[in-house]
Amino acid sequence: MERLQKIIAESGFCSRRKAEEYIKSGLVYVNGEKITELGTKASFGDYIEVDGESITREDKVYYLLNKPRGYVSTVSDELNRKKITDLIDTDKRIYPVGRLDYDTTGLIILTNDGELANILMHPSRGVEKTYVAKLNKAMTPKDQMILKSGVSVDGIKCIPTRVKVRDVDYNKDTCIVEISIVEGRNHIIKNVFLTLGYLVDKLTRVEYGFLKLDNMKSGEYRELSIKEVKKLYEYKNQ
Ligand code: URA
Which tens digit of pLDDT belongs to each residue from 144-202? Predict the structure, then answer.
């Protein structure tokens, strides 16, 4: 017997957090009985329905995608824009682990494994993510120092784990910065630079933990190996 929200997440239907919302909103039935209590236990042998759909155990799949510009990284979009899930040829109900902005490119994981998604997105886990940002002007040495020591965004300090200023060209007024962070607030990189007075013209995520984008083309994807998935599960113990 497992907690109901865990079973729903393991089925690949949605994340554990989303499953909790379904339960609280009275949209979950176990053997015909409506369940609204979060601690309720059940098993895959029970007949479970979420929002009118029955839950069965689904094989887990894991993909690493090089997200192109102009795609949303959500499973639905009120503006009907292109979704990254459409780029992956699968009949499984996959969803992205975290988000990249519509105009951000680069490495993103998609899976139907709610447990792993939950582990990786948990704020305390500290998966390091590396981005390459092209700024609208050259960064001054003073701002580079401030960036390295941390910048407050909405009252919370974001301290990069690594900053490498590449190609700062004061004549052409261009600048490319490689920056690694562990936190996952929405638009955090753009907001960090905005706080210092810079706009991010281009943003690419090149690393997620030990995973690297390498030479994958835009829109290209691959399945993660069993070894890689096991290694991602190790973040559970961090
Ligand atoms: N930070 C941002 O500003 N945008 C992203 O897409 C990811 C991190």
Answer: 999 999 999 999 999 999 999 988 888 888 899 999 999 889 999 999 999 999 999 99
Q: Is 176 helix (H, G, I), strand (E, B) or coil?
A: strand
DSSP secondary structure, 53-91, as one string? EE-------EEEEEEPTT-BSSS--TT---BGGGGS--S
The enclosing H or E element of 232 equals helix 226-233
Ligand 1 in contact with 188 (CB < 6 A)?
yes
Is 0.85 surpassed by the pTM of this model? no
Greatest alpha-carbon span in the chain:
70
Phi/psi of residue 217, nearest 5 degrees: -80, 160
Q: Indicate whether residue 48 lines ligand 1 (CB < 6 A).
A: no
Residues catalogued as catalytic: 101
Is the CB of 119 within 6 Å of ligand 1?
Answer: no
CA distance 203 to 104: 5
Q: 231: CA distance to ligand 1 center in Å? A: 24
Q: How far apart are CA 152 and CA 197, in angstroms?
A: 13
Nearest CA to ligand 1 atom 2: 187
Which atom of ligand 1 has the smallest separation from the CA of 187?
A: 3
Query: Could you tell me if 48 and 8 are in contact, meaning their C-beta atoms sit under 8 angstroms apart?
Result: yes
